[in-house]
Automatic annotation (TrEMBL):
One of its GO terms (molecular function) is metal ion binding. Residues 13-82 form the HTH merR-type domain. It comes from the Bacteria. InterPro entries: Cobalamin-bd_sf, DNA-bd_dom_put_sf, MerR-type_HTH_dom, MerR_fam, Meth_synthase_dom. This is HTH merR-type domain-containing protein. Transmembrane segments: none annotated.
């Protein structure tokens, strides 16, 4: 469902039932893992109720990914519980420096995965992934990173984000469509935003890159989605986004949200999400909840 008021994720905690719904791991299994393997280790209220923060949910999701890869539960718990030994953790600058020299994409992908798993996802995106991508773009412009290197690491990042996406349960409530307009192919930040919405329990359909306006309209009609999210990452994407806005609005979309560096260059009625992911999720949640309530009120009367 759309959260009416999304609290800051760094402070938010969840009961065991809420943690189960957000991770797809049953409350019984969470208790069993804690009893057998000492993982996870939730905080406790004075009444001894378990409370899980975002870092704990990230660990639980990592545990499920390791189990899906074929590890035994005891082995996976040891890996998740011993995060300091899980692999190399590079700063964004060090990550790009490694890419500039002799490198293995496989090793860099492992490093990316370790950084991803080391903190709540919203913190990872705003404070590690986005700065790293900005440095990567500059290095490519200078010629310090080849086209092949840039494409290789981008594909590795998409693979890791795909693992996170697949590990999250699908939400309920109104559908949100997320994708890129015709001609746009820079998916990393958009998929990250889709993951953040999915973490909030929102039902998301990710449409991918380079989708013509008529295909967007078909998706809106097929799913009856009232909410659409897209990105404007290059100046040349602006006309395609403006065409998309007209097309999905005619098909029935009522809230069109824009991210990306050039979101402010787009004309037409749309919600500009800003450039930081945490506040963008909050802003999106408020507007989507208001839309959902305004649509539901007449039916209730």
């Amino acid at each position: 469902m759309f959260p009416g008021t999304v609290q800051r994720r760094r402070c938010r905690v969840y009961t065991i039932g809420q943690a189960a719904r957000r991770t797809g791991v049953s409350a019984d299994k969470l208790r069993a893992w804690e009893r057998r393997y000492g993982f996870p280790t939730p905080a406790r209220t004075q009444a001894r109720y378990r409370l899980y923060d975002e870092a704990a949910l990230a660990q639980i999701r990592r545990m499920t990914r390791l189990l899906a890869e074929g590890l035994q539960a005891r082995e996976a718990a040891l890996i998740v519980g011993a995060r300091d030994d899980a692999g190399p953790r590079l700063t964004p600058a060090a990550f790009i420096k490694a890419l500039e020299g002799p490198h293995s994409i496989r090793q860099l992908e492992k490093s990316f995965a370790c950084c991803l798993q080391d903190r709540p996802f919203v913190d990872f995106v705003d404070n590690w992934m986005v700065p790293m991508l900005e440095l990567l773009g500059r290095a490519w412009l200078r010629g310090d990173v080849s086209i092949g290197g840039e494409h290789g690491v981008s594909a590795a990042i998409m693979r890791q984000l795909g693992v996170v996406w697949d590990a999250l349960p699908q939400g309920d409530g109104p559908m949100v469509l997320i994708g890129l307009p015709a001609g746009a192919r820079h998916e990393i930040c958009l998929l990250a935003f889709a993951i953040l919405l999915k973490e909030q329990g929102i039902r998301v359909r990710y449409l991918g890159a380079d989708l013509p306006a008529e295909s967007w309209a078909e998706a809106v009609i097929e799913t009856r989605a009232r909410v659409v999210v897209t990105g404007v990452h290059r100046p040349e994407d602006v006309p395609s986004v403006e065409e998309l806005i007209v097309s999905v609005a005619a098909a029935g979309a009522q809230l069109i949200a824009l991210g990306g560096r050039y979101q402010g260059d787009v004309s037409g009625s749309a919600l500009r999400l800003g450039h930081e992911f945490g506040p963008a999720v909050d802003r999106f949640g408020r507007h989507a909840a208001e839309l959902h309530e305004s649509v539901a009120e007449p039916a209730a009367g």
